[in-house]
Amino acid sequence: MVCLFFTTEEYSCEYGSLKFYALCGFGGILSCGLTHTAVVPLDLVKCRIQVDPQKYKSIFNGFSVTVKEDGVRGLAKGWAPTFFGYSMQGLCKFGFYEVFKILYGNLLGEENAYLWRTSLYLAASASAEFFADIALAPMEAAKVRIQTQPGYANTLRQAAPKMFAEEGLWAFYKGVVPLWMRQIPYTMMKFACFERTVEALYRYVVPKPRSECSKGEQLVVTFIAAGVFCAIVSHPADSVVSVLNKEKGSSALQVLKRLGFKGVWKGLFARIIMIGTLTALQWFIYDSVKVYFRLPRPPPPEMPESLKKKLGLTE
Q1: Which of 55, 183, 257, 258 is paired with 22 by a 20 to 30 Å CA distance?
Q2: DSSP 203
Q3: What is the pLDDT of residue 217?
Q4: Per-residue pLDDT tens for 133-164?
Q5: CA-to-CA distance for 214 and 302, rounded, in angstroms?
Q6: How far apart are CA 188 and CA 118, in angstroms?
Q7: Does the predicted model carry a pTM greater than 0.90?
């Protein structure tokens, strides 16, 4: 992970300990819960563009129509399921990523973990997101209902019991498969890009120790390398999730066929702005939590000495 600050104090816990995982999960709660809640207005407009492009023709038009019909307060619709859902997702996403990264790294061994580190990041992040989406799915379903179905419900307390009465537990989890389709590629791109960008930054770009790297430099690299790519990779599935949670009786495949290639890219510009900003802020908050609690953060990976000897790179 990137180090935005430097401290010579002792670490507060051992790398890979239960306390380490718990505090990483806490950092995930803050990084995902706060950032996603902060951009609820943009997310609301994005979802409405996806499910009703005839009415909400663009970002600015979407904001204008929403404020005209619901007032400024209408832009905050869905904030509660967003906060609770993405807090739980962040707990699992960041906490389990650290768990799986260490677990898979130990299974591979030091040399293979270095040689296959990109695959390690991809596998660890995909495994973490699998569980994170199960935690997110109920709140995501409620959020989309509140934001895209006028008159259905205005709050989580109204939406949840109504959804359960109409469709039972299935109402909360029918979108989990397209959610995996959306979130797993996004998270794999997010973590792998971030890890490898950090490594490349210190190796080829920044001619100084990581302890001297400014916050601004890290945020710019993170936004470009992870945010934009993540948004593009995950957007088609995001469109399917939005439409699927609005409609009853449709399957992900049916929605995908009906939207077509052009339809699944509606709202992409809004998502790039939202996801790019979110990604940069999430890494900043997450790493700040690690620094505050003095968690150990290994430096960017370097080739093990044993592998250097095998490859004849040492005397």
Answers
A1: 183
A2: I
A3: 63
A4: 999 999 999 998 998 888 899 899 999 999 99
A5: 22
A6: 10
A7: no
